[in-house]
Amino acid sequence: MPLGHYGWIMLDFYKDKNIFITGHTGFKGTWLCRILLQAGANVTGYALEPPTKPSLFIQTGTEKEINSIISDVINRDALIINVKKAKPDIIFHMAAQPIVRLSYNKPALTYETNVMGTVNILEAIRLTSSVKSFINITTDKVYENKEWHWGYRENENLCGLDPYSNSKSCSELVTYSYRKSFFYNKDDCAVSTARSGNVIGGGDYAEDRVIPDCIRAMEAKSDIIIRNPNSIRPYQHVLECLSGYLHLAQRQYNDKRLEGAYNFGPYDESCVTTGELASIFCDAWGQNAAWINKGDSGPHEADILKLDCSKAKAVFDWKPYWDIKTAVEKTVEFAKTKSDDEKKACVEKQIKEYFSRENYV
User: Under a CB-based contact definition with an 8 Å cutoff, are residues 232 and 297 in contact?
Assistant: First the structure.
């Protein structure tokens, strides 16, 4: 694979770097581990056991290729000890309770994990001199949602409504406070937050997510149920936002002045309704797949949510690559693999396709 163009110049930066990832056993965490392993990084992960069965982390055998620590970010002492031991150059904080509906059932756990987990990892960084770049991955839902038809920018108000979204808004504020209070010198760790859209991709087995629910319905030969077909979300493939995180971590590692908050979302044409997303899935799956509208009386979720990513484009020349149709097709490609070996090979192939393309940016 050629290293001469921008995509692999970016990943080549991570060769031999010590990387610490919280939440590495999850869907996004596993994809990030796989990218960094291809790049030649030394990866340490810190998380609870995989949150789903099946699990992409288990299917790809990632545990055997990294230093995997099974523990909770709520356990501050254990987290600090393990960060110090790993001596990381860069930390990606992904550990979270990420499901909106579950946050209504377990609000205290959601706040404890998403807020105090952020405090604990920042405490670990404050006590570990090796860390030069830190990215707190939050969500597009941190913004005070006014149901606008245009994208939210990084300087918009932070005030998520539901416990999940609100806890992530709090996590943003905690990160801001630590950055201004403890990491303000030019030689201190660069600290940023990254907000992405609704992520899809192979190996997401979580409940209450549109594409995983569609796949489960097809595999069970049952109806695809869409409960809110008119809601609009910024859908994107998992590799899109991960490439943004990797760009940000690298660039601020070399230039602390670039730290801050960044959106990494799709083009406007990939901000589609849930019904449109389900239709794109049905086309990609084939076999006369179709969906039906069957709303429920579940808790509040926003109707319209978009991100403005002009800051990342201006600062890093970062931009999306795979549109929503391609993102769904790549997800279906993975879903139709059978064995764990096939699933791992599919992940590796898609990473190479994404990062080794011509004219990466």
Answer: no
Helix (H) or strand (E) holding 148: none
Token pair in block for residue 196: 């992405």
- Please tell me the number of Cα atoms within 13 Å of 343 on its side-chain side: 21
Q: Reduced to 3 states, what is the DSSP secondary structure of residue 194?
A: strand
For residue 216, the tally of other CB atoms under 10 A from its CB is 14
Please write down the HEC assignment for all residues of 51-80. Answer: CCCCCHHHHCCHHHCCEEEECCCCCHHHHH
**Distance of alpha carbon 177 from alpha carbon 171, whole angstroms:** 10
Q: Residues 104-146: pLDDT tens digits?
A: 999 999 999 999 999 999 999 999 999 999 999 999 999 998 8
Kindly list the strands in the beta sheet with 133-137, ordered across the sheet, starting from the edge strand earlier in the chain. 67-70, 42-47, 18-22, 90-93, 133-137, 190-196, 261-264
Q: What is the pLDDT of residues 233-254, one digit of tens each?
A: 889 999 999 999 999 999 999 9
Count CB-CB contacts under 10 A for residue 209: 18
126 by Cβ neighbours in 10 Å (0-12 / 13-18 / 19+) ranks as middle
Tokens of 204: 């997401």
